[in-house]
Amino acid sequence: MRAVVTRRAGTMEVGEVPDPGEPGAGQVLVRTEAVGICGSDLHFLTGELATPPAFGPQFPRVQGHEFAGVIEALGHGCPPELAVGQRIAVHPLSSCGRCRACRIGRENACPDFRLVGVHVDGALAARVTVAADQVFGVGDLPPAVAAFCEPMSIAVRALERGRVTDGERVVVLGAGPIGQAVTIGALDRGARVMITDVAAARLAPAAAAGAEVLDAGVADVVATAGEWTGGDGPAVVVDCTGRPSAIADGVAMVAPAGRVVVVGISHEQVSLPVDAFTRKELDVLGSTVCTAADFAEAVRLVERHREQVSRLVTHRAALADAPAAIAHALHHPGEVLKLVISTEGA
């Protein structure tokens, strides 16, 4: 079958790979329809994101972990709510089930988790086999919108970690796909949201969703957040950038007894004043991927806000054109908010 294969760091091409065949017990064969491309995909492609040696060779790999498709076949023992012909989205994470994180119900923090499209071959192919418990029905959502359930699940997890509730003021740092998803989710919870970015063009979808927007390239983010909250500071700050300067701004602006959630990924070091934690009694929280319950809530959010989600898909390409389209997204991050690859007909 046709697939996009990352042969080595920086090299991606369309080629033939073996068909996955019939699904085994508890497995689902999915005919893929739409695959979203995110920053992690780009970092994997360049080799900046490396899998541990214990996981085996990183390349070659069929990438693609944000995806929607149609169930083509069901293995024995699949849940009765799944049916051939049903459109679904896939929660790409599986965990070990044995470690402390798994035992306390936070399997998303499992140190040995596996991601479809990273540790095993993913969805930039005509078909892929996944575990039945990773499959979620999405009703009549269009494929490109349904593929956004995965990034929305990251946002749901961050909002859960931040305990965002009705009436609170929330500042979101970074207006990429995750920042946009956090904004949609926070507004859905009844919060008031301000979102910031140095790329002003990225702020338009959040403004259309009902958020206050701030061009961080021309304004003092900390001072403006203080004014917006009447001097109190926001109850919650969600960093979706991974930039040390943004995280430092988040700690500086958040209200006393507030929460700072870091969902942006980076290997950089951040320096923070110790008294910020003690003087304000802050909660500083990490957030990683999501649980199955988070993914189910993400599906419901995308269903409720499908029009807002559809605005986030700024670029589309067919599977045959995927390497060029992904290279364009890599080199034009300010222009491409969300690229979706159509795998129909592959």
Summarize the structure.
With about 350 residues, this protein is of the alpha/beta class.
Structure description:
The strands form 4 sheets. Strands 3, 4, 5, 8, 9, 16 and 17 form a 7-stranded mixed β-sheet that branches. The chain has helices spanning 39-46, 100-103, 143-146, 149-162, 177-188, 204-209, 221-228, 244-253, 274-280, 292-304, 306-312, 322-331, and strands at 2-8, 11-16, 27-37, 66-74, 87-90, 93-94, 114-115, 127-131, 135-137, 169-173, 192-197, 212-215, 236-239, 259-262, 283-286, 315-318, 339-342. The chain has 12 helices and 17 strands. The protein has 2 domains: 2-148 and 313-342, Medium-chain alcohol dehydrogenases, catalytic domain (Quinone Oxidoreductase, Chain A, domain 1, Alpha-Beta Complex), CATH 3.90.180.10; 155-286, 3-Layer(aba) Sandwich (Rossmann fold). The model has no long low-confidence stretch (mean pLDDT 96). The chain starts with a strand and ends with a strand. Helix 4 packs across helix 5 (177-188), helix 4 crosses helix 10 and helix 7 packs parallel to helix 8.
Topology:
Blueprint: E1 2-8, E2 11-16, E3 27-37, H1 39-46, E4 66-74, E5 87-90, E6 93-94, H2 100-103, E7 114-115, E8 127-131, E9 135-137, H3 143-146, H4 149-162, E10 169-173, H5 177-188, E11 192-197, H6 204-209, E12 212-215, H7 221-228, E13 236-239, H8 244-253, E14 259-262, H9 274-280, E15 283-286, H10 292-304, H11 306-312, E16 315-318, H12 322-331, E17 339-342
Parallel strand pairs: 10-11, 10-13, 11-12, 13-14, 14-15, 16-17
Antiparallel strand pairs: 1-2, 3-4, 3-8, 3-17, 4-5, 5-9, 6-7
Helix pairs in contact: 4-5, 4-10, 7-8
